[in-house]
Design the sequence.
């Protein structure tokens, strides 16, 4: 087995490891593109760059060789895969981080394929930190922007839809929702919305608007 073959196998192995590290983090938070997807992207980009370098060496002197052409194709082409992970639901967009991690994983694979380990390995560490550690910091910095709105309402058809439409009309982002039945009244239901609304004055307006809806019995606002 030649030195070149061993180096190629080593690059692909490292691509599996680095892509897998990023993919595991995405998998742990139940994102659509997880462990295997990130490995495939990393390995694919690595193979493309190895092939690109080998073709340059084979064709040197006999044609107008452009070493960066394959890499540019990967960077632009990965956008189609990333777009498949982005989901837009009314005012909420999900999947942007996963799409960005796929694109970055492809770039890491290109660096590996070029033999630039000193770039690929630190890049993987920083990407992992950005995905795993930075959200904790982000939540602490922006905790004041989130509130929980506990709404006790009659359990009738269209009630949830009416409340959700009110949030949409007021341009309030709903991050999550939980439902529970009121133990004191079998016909009532408790809806707990996690909303993003940094303006305290607007929060009070939201409470007033929701309280005025038909069937709404009580509205309680709590900080996150």
Sequence:
């Amino acid at each position: 087995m030649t030195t070149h073959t061993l180096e190629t196998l080593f690059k692909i192995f490292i691509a599996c490891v680095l892509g897998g590290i990023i993919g595991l983090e995405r998998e742990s938070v139940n994102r659509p593109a997880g462990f295997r997807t990130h490995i495939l992207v990393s390995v694919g980009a690595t193979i493309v760059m190895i092939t690109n370098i080998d073709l340059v060496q084979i064709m040197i002197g006999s044609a107008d060789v452009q070493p960066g052409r394959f890499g540019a194709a990967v960077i632009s082409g990965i956008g189609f895969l990333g777009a498949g992970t982005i989901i837009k639901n009314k005012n909420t967009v999900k999947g942007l981080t996963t799409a960005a991690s796929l694109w970055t994983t492809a770039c890491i694979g290109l660096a590996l394929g070029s033999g630039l380990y000193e770039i690929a390995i630190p890049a993987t560490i920083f990407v992992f930190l950005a995905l795993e550690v930075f959200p904790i910091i982000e939540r602490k910095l922006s905790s004041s922007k989130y509130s929980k709105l506990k709404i006790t309402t009659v359990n009738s058809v269209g009630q949830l839809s009416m409340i959700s439409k009110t949030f949409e009309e007021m341009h309030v982002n709903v991050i999550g929702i939980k439902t529970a039945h009121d133990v004191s009244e079998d016909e009532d239901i408790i809806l707990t919305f996690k909303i993003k609304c940094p303006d305290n004055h607007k929060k009070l307006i939201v409470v007033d608007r929701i309280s005025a809806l038909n069937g709404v019995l009580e509205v309680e606002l709590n900080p996150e």
The longest strand covers residues 146-154.
